[in-house]
Design goal:
Elements (H helix, E strand, L loop, with lengths): L1 H39 L8 H4 L10 H10 L21 E7 L4 E7 L4 E10 L5 E10 L5
Antiparallel strand pairs: 1-2, 2-3, 3-4
């Protein structure tokens, strides 16, 4: 009887061991992904307490969202966004993806649906909650096909 129990235990251990190895590998993957996320968040207003301190007196719940919303308001209903120094070729250039890096700089992706580029902006969030945006640099990607 004890031989039967021993064989059952061996069979179960044979099944458990690869699962334990798989769990360990998945835990390593999750840890690596968490480190990558932290690395990607390094340049972000939301995770920069020193930069956020500049806006404490404004009592904004989410300064990054507020600034991004103000930036998106510059997308004209028709016509190109005035912060983009190019004329759209397949439509109007509009701002899309926004990364607020700190209390001074923003990098933004723009597109007309076919062509795309990026702009680097300087911004100032003023005490009256107005936001001024200034173009620092820009690029337009060329299509290879």
């Amino acid at each position: 009887m004890s031989d039967v129990k021993g064989m059952k235990i061996e069979k179960l251990n044979a099944k458990v061991s690869p699962l334990q190895d798989r769990v360990s590998a998945l835990q390593d993957s999750v840890q690596n992904l968490n480190l990558k996320v932290l690395d990607m968040q390094y340049f972000s207003l939301e995770n920069n307490d020193d930069a956020l301190a500049y806006y404490e007196h404004l009592n904004l719940d989410d300064p990054a969202r507020y600034i991004a919303d103000k930036l998106l308001e510059t997308n004209e209903p028709s016509g190109n966004n005035p912060l983009i120094p190019y004329e759209g070729m397949e439509g109007d250039f509009k701002l899309n993806k926004i990364k607020i890096m700190n209390h001074k700089w923003i990098i933004v992706d723009f597109s007309d649906g076919k062509y795309w580029g990026e702009v680097l902006l300087k911004y100032e969030l003023k005490d009256d909650r107005g936001v001024d945006f200034t173009l620092i640099d820009h690029l337009l990607y060329t299509r290879s096909n």
